[in-house]
Write a structure and sequence with these properties.
Elements lengths: L2 H21 L4 H29 L9 H4 L8 E2 L13 E3 L2 E4 L10 E3 L4 E9 L3 E10 L2 E8 L1 E2 L9 E2 L4 E5 L13 E8 L8 E2 L2 H4 L2 E2 L8
The protein binds zinc ion.
Amino acid sequence: MKRLPIIILIMLAAATLLIAILRNPPIQSGNSNNQLQNSTNLGANLDKTNSSTEQKIDFQSPLDNPQTRITKKPFGIYITPKNSPVQPERFAGYHTGVDFELLPDELDKEATVTAFCNGPIIQKGWANGYGGYVIQQCSINKETVTALYGHLNVSTVPAQGVILAAGAKIGVLGKGFSSETDQERKHLHFALHKGGAVELKGYVANQSALEAWINPVNYFNN
Ligand SMILES: [Zn+2]
């Protein structure tokens, strides 16, 4: 009988398994260990999800629903104090960025601005026309550009050198008609300038100068 050794082997294995189970019954602490392991796995899965999301969404609108917010000053609009959709107006020229407006019920609430791209904060401070601003370095089609976020409360912006992922909080909009917005209405001026050099101009005098800037609307993925 050739089967006998196999049957004995199976019985031995079964007996060993039974002994092992009897010695280590599943107890409560074993479960919590499992839970810990599960949550660690969950973390790993989340990381994977995040990195794949980052690859998919390279660029994000710094405020939601850009198409419903960019209503007054789109990219490249030529304005003067007389014809400007915003009154009173103190500027003139071609608009180098886009202005995101807030809805009436958002004016008294904290408005969080998020990063357009994956990249470091290279400058933040105060400037004429903006109040608080922050510059983030981005890469579009492997070309370096700078992203300018104007009219922010600078104290809410992370330190220079901090690398942000697209969609991460970059700051909170400044209070309307205060020093935080340089006395402008509460809104976000957002602009993309070609190259790595920081350029703060919100308006330029002619269309050829406007060619150094990019319409960000073309890159929003949300
Ligand atoms: Zn603007």
